[in-house]
């Protein structure tokens, strides 16, 4: 009985010990629990960042095509210019130069 009283007295004097144990259990549960694990959260954060990059590139692409659509709707000269540029066509009085990278 004496050892039990000493142990009980020791635990009461060090009241922070149960708090540390409970806190450690909570941290371990948060880290290893499947639904709220930190590894899963980091994976989701990485996926969110990739999706944000994809949204940004799609917005840039949409802006590019919007500008071209407006140019086509604005007049015949712009439409002709874009068609000749895209299909590498030329007028009889023009010279066309195609510039490529040497690495290609």
Task: Describe it.
It is a single chain. By secondary structure, this protein is mainly α. The protein has a domain at 36-89. It has 4 helices and no strands. The chain has helices at residues 2-13, 16-32, 38-74, 76-87. The longest helix is centred in the middle third of the chain and has 37 residues, at 38-74.
- Dominant shape: rod-shaped
Per DSSP, what share of the residues sits in E-state strands of 2 or more residues? under 5%
Low-confidence stretches: none
Estimated structural class: mainly alpha
Count of helical stretches: 4
Order of helices and strands: HHHH
Tell me roughly what share of residues is in helical segments: over 70%
Radius of gyration of CA atoms, rounded to a whole number = 34 Å
Mean pLDDT over all positions: 80
Total E-strand runs = 0
State the distance separating the first and last CA atoms.
Answer: 87 Å
Main beta sheet: none
């Amino acid at each position: 009985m004496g050892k039990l009283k000493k142990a009980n007295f020791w635990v009461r004097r060090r009241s922070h010990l149960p708090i540390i144990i409970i806190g450690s259990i909570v941290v371990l549960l948060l880290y290893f629990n499947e639904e709220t694990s930190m590894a899963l959260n980091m994976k989701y954060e990485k996926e969110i960042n990739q999706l944000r990059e994809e949204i940004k590139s799609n917005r840039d692409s949409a802006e590019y095509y919007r500008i071209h659509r407006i140019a086509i709707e604005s007049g015949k000269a712009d439409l002709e210019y874009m068609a000749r540029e895209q299909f590498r066509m030329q007028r009889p009085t023009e010279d066309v130069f195609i510039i490529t990278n040497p690495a290609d």
